[in-house]
Amino acid sequence: MSQAQAIIDRCQALYEDLNFTAAREWKDAEPGRKVVGYLPIYVPREIIHAGGMLPLGVVGGGDQLEVIHGDAYYQSYICRIPRSTIELGVSGRLDFVDGMLFPSICDVIRNLSGMWKLMFPEVYSRYFDVPQNYDDEIGGNYYTRELQELREGLEAHCGVKITDDSLRRSIAVYNENRKLIRAVYEFRARQPWKAPAGDVYLLVRAGLVLPVEEHSQLMTEWLAAAEAEDKPLRDNCRVVLTGLFCEQPPLNLIKSIELSGCYIVDDDLLLVTRWLIGDVSLDGEPLRNLAHAFLHQSESTAAKYEPNLEEKGQHLVRSVRKYGAEGVIFASPSFCDPALLDRPMLQHTLADENIPYIAFKYAENSGQMQPIREQAGTFADSIKLWSEQ
Amino acid sequence: MTVITTSRSTSEQQEVSKDDSMLKQKAMMAKHFDRLTSARENGEKVCSTFVPGNLNELIMCFDFANNLPEVNAIQNGLRKKSGSYVMEAEKLGHSEDVCTYVKSDVGMMAKGNLAPNGKPFPDPDLLLLSYTGCFTFMKWFELLREQYKCETIMLHTPYEGDGKITDNMREYMVKQLKEDVIPTLERVSGVKFDIDRLRENLRRSAKAEDDLVYVLQTGRNRPSPIDAYFGGIYYIGPIFGAYRGTDDAIDYYKTLREEVDGRLAAGQGPVTPDGVMETEKYRLVVEGPPNYTSFRDFWKMFYEEGAVVVASSYTKVGGVYDFGFRHDPDNPLETLADYCLGVYTNRSLPQRVDMLVNYVNEYEADGLLINSIKSCNSFSAGQLLIMREVEKRTGKPAAFVESDLVDPRYFSAANIKNRLESYFQMVDQKRDGSAKGAAA
Ligand code: SF4
Ligand code: SF4
Fold this sequence. Notes:
The structure holds two protein chains of two kinds. In chain A, 50% of the residues lie in helices and 11% in strands. Chain A has helices at residues 3-16, 21-29, 45-50, 81-90, 107-119, 136-158, 164-190, 197-206, 212-228, 251-259, 286-296, 314-322, 337-352, 370-388, and strands at residues 35-38, 54-57, 99-103, 124-128, 237-242, 262-267, 327-333, 357-362. Chain B has helices spanning 10-17, 20-37, 56-61, 69-78, 82-91, 100-110, 136-148, 167-189, 195-217, 230-240, 247-265, 295-303, 332-342, 349-362, 377-380, 383-394, 413-439, and strands spanning 45-48, 64-67, 126-131, 151-156, 271-272, 275-276, 282-287, 307-312, 367-373, 398-403. Chain B has a four-stranded parallel β-sheet with strand order 2-1-3-4, sandwiched between helices. Chain B has a four-stranded parallel β-sheet with strand order 8-7-9-10, sandwiched between helices. In chain B, strands 5-6 form a two-stranded antiparallel sheet. In chain B, β5 (271-272) and β6 (275-276) form a beta hairpin. At the A-B interface, α5, β4, α6 and α13 of A face α7, β4, α8, α14 and α15 of B. Bound molecules: iron/sulfur cluster (SF4) (2 copies). Residues 79, 81-82, 105-106, 108-109, 246-247, 333, 336-339 of chain A line the site of one iron/sulfur cluster (SF4).
């Protein structure tokens, strides 16, 4: 087996492990260690890391988890990630987690923060709010103080100390990790035949459960190994995949798109791993620097307000241009307010730029890939046809 | 949230026509829409905003007419137009999964943007995106901005995740008001901000709020002289809409209070579309918005069974006043912040449970009924846990029905009626059980 494949196999094992064994083992390795979970879309993991704790990404139960209790908490018209997350909690799979952060992404995860408080009162649960005002003096001040509250909350609940120096060190560690994630994305966009989207997904996703240092090491090794490998180039078109920033698609869905003839050259999966664009400064006050990066150097996504009408959807256009994509695939979880409410506006922007797109919905446990394969296949064919004309 | 205008029999019309507050409210709504549709002729500018986080006192300082798209969606629901508007929006590419208020609005625009008076709404000069308690608001106004290409203000209200308002939240909001919202309102309106004018408006608000709270709290009496959900929706109309902070609102709530006092003194129940409710058999607390497309039929399922809603959470979406908050003219910007921060859907789930438990206990209700709305994740996500918690903490039975605000496809009368009937039986059994228990 190739070295790249061995790394991906390890990532796949982590992905399939619904008991989070790796994180449990990390916790058990030394007394007093703490684990803090977080949901999509973004939390500053640096703050958790700076307290010597393990940030653990919780992104639902995927297509292998049998949801027995979770459905009793949700109506049929609510997406699936909260019910499988509840299932993970109720079934004891998260019983080693000392804190849970619920980012400001939508009303479902917002309300889940309160449900967690009621259902797991011993856990430090916090709704993690972020500013929708991007002025340093307004949104920046507010956010810096929110970060400070988070820091104090974690210190009090987990019995750790989070100093400015440890924060700077953690920021440096995450800067490195983000740099590698970007390198993986750039590599895939350059040579997608060497970096199948399913592999890249698993590699990035391993960063949700592994200590960041280990994850960075893994990416470094994979990049070197994958680069050295020879794989056949296929006659695929190049697409940007968008709308998957929260509930995860089944791995099969990502693979199916590629198998249908579309190389995925950019996506918005697992945004937490590259939310901040560029390095966060190591000089001065670390929380201010995290706030500054959030306000001025972070990804655009549906959960954020776009203050400038002209900018709406331009992040997609830029991604298409930068990576030489020929079309965009909107894949959104069923009942996902942020993705589905945003979609028409993004589509208008793409239409104005003559960028073709298709759209479909999925759930984390979608089993039937045939319709998606057909749709993506037809899309790939039509793109090829257009480009030949 | 407004006057219902379907036809009634002559005798019923006489019955209802005695109800001064209702006539007043109807006239106020008509005036509101006339003002909006003649704004251009009258040289007035129009600002659109949301009911939760509605800064009417501030908007009035700049002489804007206040257009509330949620109120328009409700009107379209009551007038049975929303179904076709929702489908129109879906044809235009909006997902079947998202909030039907948005789609009703988008569909209405596509079909001529007509107000209930039959005249077209003017395009707004300003969108005041008061981002309070609902994620959809942000996308809704981004969609409207795309359509109208007008100036848009984002006023971000942090969520009360830990069940309290922190200084940081309040200061953030006040700063946004001072440095962003007010300067933009000044610029677009051309009117200079006068803080004393704001104080006056706030003073008037507080006065009307006192009477509103008084009226809603009469639900504690037996029999309750009001229905705090179906009737309550009429009562909140002026104060949640474009009238808070006006003399008209003070007048309306004074009249309403006198009326309700009259019924209280006479030992009467609430007024329903079929006249005064004679026998109060069940006292309920209701969580969640109503269905507007079959509003009357839905209500009838309650009053025909002798069920009266003594308290509801929906009458708190545009402001929670019954735990002491009043708009405070002495702290004008802070009070606007606290108002936005405190609306029902901006409260954490544990706070919502506390409120509902408090209602069941304080209003001596037989239990909790949840009307779960497909459109609204803000309300609905977590309601099944709310139900269990309230049941556990009050020992009273709870029930769950599902519908939608303005999408008629999601109102199944037979299902809801069945559920309600079983629920009432459950309440009876519970009562019998307690009576036997007490006797034993
Ligand atoms: S999938 Fe969408 S609606 Fe569901 S929790 Fe995630 S962001 Fe919210
Ligand atoms: S119905 Fe719910 S989701 Fe829709 S706009 Fe109102 S609060 Fe938001």
